[in-house]
Amino acid sequence: MTLNQTSVSLDDAQRVIAAGQAKAAEIESPSNIAVVDAGGNLVAHVRMDGAWIASIDISINKAFTARALDISTEDLAANAGPGDQFFGIHASNGGRIMSFTGGVPLRHNGQVIGAVGASGGTGEQDKAVAEAAAAAL
Amino acid sequence: MTLNQTSVSLDDAQRVIAAGQAKAAEIESPSNIAVVDAGGNLVAHVRMDGAWIASIDISINKAFTARALDISTEDLAANAGPGDQFFGIHASNGGRIMSFTGGVPLRHNGQVIGAVGASGGTGEQDKAVAEAAAAAL
Amino acid sequence: MTLNQTSVSLDDAQRVIAAGQAKAAEIESPSNIAVVDAGGNLVAHVRMDGAWIASIDISINKAFTARALDISTEDLAANAGPGDQFFGIHASNGGRIMSFTGGVPLRHNGQVIGAVGASGGTGEQDKAVAEAAAAAL
Amino acid sequence: MTLNQTSVSLDDAQRVIAAGQAKAAEIESPSNIAVVDAGGNLVAHVRMDGAWIASIDISINKAFTARALDISTEDLAANAGPGDQFFGIHASNGGRIMSFTGGVPLRHNGQVIGAVGASGGTGEQDKAVAEAAAAAL
Fold first, then answer.
1. Record's Pfam families (chains A, B, C, D) (predicted)?
2. ipTM score
3. By the 8 A CB rule, do A137 and A131 touch?
4. Minimum CA–CA partner of B5 in chain C
5. Interface of B with C (CB under 8 A)
6. Chains D/A: 3 or more C-beta pairs closer than 8 A?
């Protein structure tokens, strides 16, 4: 018996990103925002004017991480420090695991159907942007 | 003396991508479309529903190539076959050089200020999408 | 509406590097020194006689990091240790993020227009070389 | 019994690069020019204003290739096409083998002591720049 997988559409992704952009503008934290689908693959990305170049990769990979482990990157970070059970996980997956705040799974009827990643400011700012984005699903 | 470089904004990039999406829908070729800035760095990307996963990377790197060499990837391809002067260039830049049709420089007052890459169908389809996108700058 | 971005020229980069070399010679710390432009792309690099081979990559990527996040790598390091908000960021960007001293943004009229990275000695030595270099912009 | 290896100094590298720059300016082909030492490791690099971003990597790796195989990249190209004995060699060395014109070994008393790579124009232009550079050793 095959599996059925619900996943974000491009339309979903763009709505999510637009909500993230609005929050980023409000808190004055120019951001990169990315959405991946249920397969962990990029659906859409934007870099707001003035946002950091390094955050392109970071936003995409925060989203990847949040879907690839079905966990927010903040919760992952809490378990990935020295002495924690997942310390060292950032070395896996060819450098795609981001173990700091700003990646949030996108859930629909309790199922993870994708994820959003935000990068551009402090951990708190990125969290605010990613959560505002995710709330728009 | 510093250099002055004009570059695409996010607003430019999204207008360009929207035009590419419209063309892709018209010719029924679900595509990945990406825009990079004057520095070759990603500004925005979309994957239309049903578009190939491999085309995420290809669209981004077609755009990179078109800016990084200030040439359409179609024109590059014409000089990168066996016996041609640039044969082997695809091995450079960590696999980011795409030497087939679908990447087009974005020009403003004669200066390259970014590039767009499309991937999702045949070479002819990708070219049609990328050129429709570029025309919207 | 396009963006305007000022960036270092080769002339700027070579003046910056020469100043770094002079400081490195003075403190007897043979160094690699690199300058990237506003897009994070290499403009110029030198490896002084006797400087470490590993520092080629490190100097180039310290410069990349300082531009890609618009921060000195020393300030980044202060926020990237275990328990800090950016711990794990070194895994991003394909290994190009250097979170230790020696990368400094180059600013012109308050705007980051590139960055310089120095590698060859202790953190203090690299900092001295990078800061002397940056001061020559 | 240990080996003695003669290698280019930074001073040599910068003289070689300056000669390449002069030729590139003369033929109006803004170039990236790089020199590696006897170990194949980068000694110095410049990107002239307006030169292609993709040519950073290409110039450095043309120099690497010319030293790593002790052959000009033009001569390598002549043996690396489909059906030739070295066809496929560009897939080796992590993408660092450049099998097209513009990389030239630097010889001193018959021994290869480094190499120079130029990238920025046609194969003929890159060859002219690299050969003018090499002649200044």
1. HbpS-like (PF03928)
2. 0.96
3. no
4. C5
5. 1-9, 11-12, 37-41, 108, 113
6. no
Q: Which pLDDT value is given to residue B1?
A: 77
Q: What is the DSSP letter of B89?
A: G
Q: Are strands B42-47 and B103-108 parallel, antiparallel or unpaired?
A: unpaired
> Whole domain around residue D32: which residue ranges?
10-134
The answer to the question of residue B3 being in a domain is no
Mean pLDDT for A89-118 is: 96
Residue A2: inside a domain, yes or no?
no
Q: Could you tell me which residues of chain C have a Cβ less than 8 Å from any Cβ in chain A? A: 3, 39-40, 65, 67-70, 82-83, 85-95, 97
Interior/surface letters A3-39, b for 16+ CB within 10 angstroms, e for the rest: eeeebbebebbbbbbebbbebbeebebbbbbbbbbbe
Task: Say yes or no for a CB contact (<8 Å) between B10 and A39.
Answer: no
CATH number, domain of A71, equals 3.30.450.150
- Contact check, Cβ <8 Å, D48/C14: no
Q: How close A96 gets to chain C, by Cα (Å)?
A: 7
The torsion defined by the Cα of B20, B23, B25 and B29, in degrees rounded to 10, comes to -80
Domain count, chain B: 1
Look-up of token digits 């110095």: D44
Mean pLDDT calculated for residue range B102-123: 97
**Which amino acid does the sequence have at A57?**
D
Q: What pLDDT digit, counting tens, does each position of C96-119 carry?
A: 999 999 999 999 999 999 999 999
How far off is chain D from C94, nearest CA to CA, in Å?
A: 14
pLDDT at A128: 98
Quote the longest CA-to-CA distance of chain A: 49
The CA distances from residue D96 to B100, C31, D81, D118, in Å, are: 21, 24, 17, 14
Q: Give the lowest-confidence range in B39-43, B84-88, D118-122.
A: B84-88
> Is there a domain that residue C3 lies in?
no
In sequence order, the 6+-apart residues with CB closer than 8 A to the CB of A76 are A65, A69, A86, A89, A97, A99
Q: What are residue D26's phi and psi, to 5 degrees?
A: -60, -45
Residue D3 inside a domain? The answer is: no
pLDDT reported for residue A1: 83
Contact predicate C58/C48, CB 8 Å: no
What Rg do the C-alpha atoms of chain D give, in angstroms? 14
* Interface probe with B: pick from C3, C6, C67, C96, most Cβ of B within 10 Å: C3
pLDDT mean over B45-57: 97
